[in-house]
Hints:
It is a single chain. By secondary structure, this protein is mainly α. Helix content is 70%, strand content 0%. It contains 14 helices and no strands.
Amino acid sequence: xxxxxxxxxxxxxxxxxxxxxxxxxxxxxxxxxxxxxxxxxxxxxxxxxxxxxxxxxxxxxxxxxxxxxxxxxxxxxxxxxxxxxxxxxxxxxxxxxxxxxxxxxxxxxxxxxxxxxxxxxxxxxxxxxxxxxxxxxxxxxxxxxxxxxxxxxxxxxxxxxxxxxxxxxxxxxxxxxxxxxxxxxxxxxxxxxxxxxxxxxxxxxxxxxxxxxxxxxxxxxxxxxxxxxxxxxxxxxxxxxxxxxxxxxxxxxxxxxxxxxxxxxxxxxxxxxxxxxxxxxxxxxxxxxxxxxxxxxxxxxxxxx
Length: 305
């Protein structure tokens, strides 16, 4: 089973140890238990590779699920940023406020602004120091009957996307392709009788894995490239200035930072919601109020003094 394979992999001898026992010409029973085990390992030069492949096969479904999960998070984050109508409204309000404040200067009548400008809005305060420019923009949204909390709902995947490193994702997919190709070349692409005999040593599920693994890798590679294309559209949409335009995390960390500024500003700007009582609770409260009122009017029946 898998746990046994992991234990064997953990105690597998080094190449030097294998070479040492391979030179032994005496009887195997004269060796200690560890050396006998090493001698058995030395008889099959491809054993370590086979164990590694079998373990990768066992981990393959989980590896695929995790890669697909990461790609799903990235795509959801990308599309939410492009399609969030509330975010667009907030950005339009910020642009108008900026143009109003910069009227008459070179910065006035701007058609857009850099994302880092959003991070500065919470630091721009009103004269009484109670309201930030970001808070004012949020209040303006509320006055126009828009729910600013929808931005948090729309961008719920952005912070998770910021934790996904593009290089790690690409290297994991590349590693999958390297292993699957190595297995396919060694196991399926046989050119001689001796190699064909070696094929018989592998269980049928290994052969099936080589075929399905190659297809799975192809689909994941296509998904990665498609995600990169969508990501590039998003960066162009917001005209993001990035050192590396293929680094997902660089862009999403900027948006995650914006959300860290947005939450406290929203808390201060949005009116506190009053919890509505259920009909039963409302009736109970009304009854208690009525009893108190009756008690005050009727008194305790005794004359004063």
